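TODO from last week: model Class I SAM-dependent methyltransferase.
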Amino acid sequence: MSFIRKANSFVKDLLLVSRIGILFKPFRFIFKFLYNFSMLSSWVNKQSGKIPFSDFYKPFRTYTNRVKLHEYVISSQGLDKKPIHYLEFGVAGGTSFVWWVKANQHPDSRFYGFDTFEGLPEDWHFFKKGAFSYDIPFMDDSRGTFIKGLFQDTVYNFLDNYRRNIDNPDATRVLHLDADLYSSTLFALTMMAPFLRNGDILLFDEFNIPNHEFAAWSDFVRSYYIKYEVVGSVNNFYQTAIRIIK
């Protein structure tokens, strides 16, 4: 075994000094995609047969079906009858944010929406930096608050205040992850990791894009040893709901 380890180190170091890896630079994206797509396929194969609410497989997506998923989550988890802390990462026009505010009328619930409101901070999928730029939505419910700026600039201070001033620590947290990007999704998950408890809900809006939300979730789960169950999915796992188990 000692010889094998030494041989492995020698070959790796030799390849590094030869810079032969640079030759693969044009193929980095396809290698990364194929790896993540393989991981996604294995994950779907493992999960698809035991999810209580799923439309897999459908030949065409109907984006508005995500409302059906949210309705199922609220009903099955009893989220319409108890206080929740709803944190949405990626607000855009505010459609889903407003929907959740209306769906849960508990006076002790709180709703927080995070977004640059200046569009994507980097290219994503088929969209360029700056896409999905919206004005801050109008909110006539005092329970709702929008936080403008990059997550990396705003979430630290928010969570510091949230930790010190939380008025209902037993409220179920609902994280709506609609930031699209791998970097933004992984950052949001990492920052929220210390707050996640048994029964908290995570909603992903573009989950089955291999290099972004799925990759972020997969890396997060492996890094933090997260235990979870899939509550439901629609549009072939494009929108997916997950329940934390701790």
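Done. The beta strands are 53-54, 84-89, 110-115, 144-148, 172-177, 201-204, 227-234, 239-245.
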